[in-house]
Structure formats: structure tokens, C-alpha cells
Amino acid sequence: MTHPTLIRRDNRTSLLPQALELASAGIPVLPLRAGKLPFGNCLGCTDNRCGGRPNMKHAGPCQCPQPCHGWAAATTNPSVLSSGPWVASWARAGAVAYHPGAAGVTVVDLDDAAAITWARESLPPTRTVATTRGEHWIYQGAMQSANGVRAGVDIKSSMSYARWVGPGTGAMAALPSVVRALIEKKPSRPRPVMLTVPAPAGGGQCPHRSPAYLERGITMAEQRITDAQSAVHATVYRTFLAVLSAHGRCGCLTETHITRLFTAAQAKGESARHCTDAWANARTALGM
Known about the structure:
Layout lengths: L15 H9 L4 E5 L3 E2 L39 H4 L2 H9 L2 E4 L6 E6 L2 H10 L4 E4 L4 E6 L5 E5 L2 E4 L5 E2 L13 H4 L30 H16 L5 H16 L7 H13 L4 H14 L3
Antiparallel strand pairs: 1-2, 1-3, 3-9, 4-6, 4-8, 5-6, 7-8
Helix pairs in contact: 6-7, 6-8, 7-9
């Protein structure tokens, strides 16, 4: 990633020339509204109705000319940047942003003096850019982005954007392991869930040959949720549905069992509200 010079402008000048200069250096750019936010989704692309699914390299198959996918709208294509809708956005933009991950870099965003002091004591020297409130430390190499990795420190790289505030000073160092480690969190014990749903009252015929049958079913359901790698919402619902179908009519299913299922779901990132809704929807589907 090379760093062009910062182009100064007054309020009457479009930011397009600066954007084109950055793009020519291989830095994918997008316009920011006043307040440092990307321009909003266009009506044709809201909720990915266009079929695009942004990833860390490009904006997917969407051909919409608007800068409508946030960080994933960032591009180095001068034809896109100079198209009619984008020209209008640049004219109204408050700043130029870029996608660090696609440019092959990681920005350690330091928001205050305390964060800068920490960086100087903890991180290897690299290219540094002064910002309004602090500094950007830029390393060669992309990684996962994360906000609030410690007080006053954000990581901006893949699937994120950073405001362009100038080329900075100093030689750019390789992304160190100490920066990568900032987003690694130790597993935490799931917090107990406050149940908002009662266990089924029972009354049906009990199919359980032994208490171990129910225990095995709950354990398998917990594992199914824990092993989910995608579509977690759907997996939680289907698992709740299966548990209720097998164990929910005889009265053997207790609030302790439900708490175990809710806890497994929350450990995968589900909220207590979603767990409650999924449980209620499963009961409704079974006519319980």
C-alpha cells in the first residue's frame, strides 16, 4: 500500500480528485458523509435485495453504481468513482474513507492520549498518522476488525473502513502478533439465563425408558447448537422444535433442561429474547 499526498480542499471542492489519486495507488476508497458515516443503502440494495453479499475483497455481484454497501463499496475503479451517482456523493462528502483490509493493511485506531501512550509502550513502531483525537498506527497485513479491544483502541482492517487523514510518517512495519492478539478473547462461562417461559405441563404418554433417555436427548441438543457454524438462528429453532417434539408432552422436561438449552444458544451469540421467541414459536408449531 502506497500513500499519496493529502489533497487539501475547501468546502466548494469535490473530494473526487483525492479519491482518484488514492485509487490509482491501489487503495479502495468510498465517500463519507459529515459525521464520518458512509452513505446509506440505496432502495435497490437494502438488506442485500440486489443479491450482493459483501466480503473482505469486493462487494459481491451487485452492480449498483451507488456507494451503497458501506465498507464493501470501496473501490479502485476510476469508472465507478467517476460515475454520475458517485460524483454527486463526492460533492456532498465530508471526507474520504478507505477499506484497510482490501489495501492489505491494518489500522490501530488510537482515540486519546492514554491509548497513544499504551501503543508507544506496547507496539512496535510503524507508520503513524495524526487524527483529530489521536493517531492511526498502520501495519502491513490484514486481519479481522474489532472495536473496543481496549480503552480507546479499535482495530480497522477487513470488513471495516477508516478515514483517510494523510500519508503519515515513518516506515510501515509488518503486522505484529501483539496486534492480532488484541482481538483474541478467552472463552467466558455463559451467564445464567432468566427464563421467561415455563416448562410444558405434560399430561401425555411418557416415552422415556429411563432418565438417561431424556438426559441423552438434552445433551445431544446442546451439542447440536454448540456445533453450529452457520445459520445459528435456524439451528436453535430446529433444535428446540426437536426437543419439544420428543420430550415436551409428558411433563419430564423441566426448567433446568430449558435453561441448559438457552445457555448453549446464548454461548453462540443468541439473545435471551431470541431464545424465548424461538421456544414459543416451536411450541406453537407443535400445538402446545
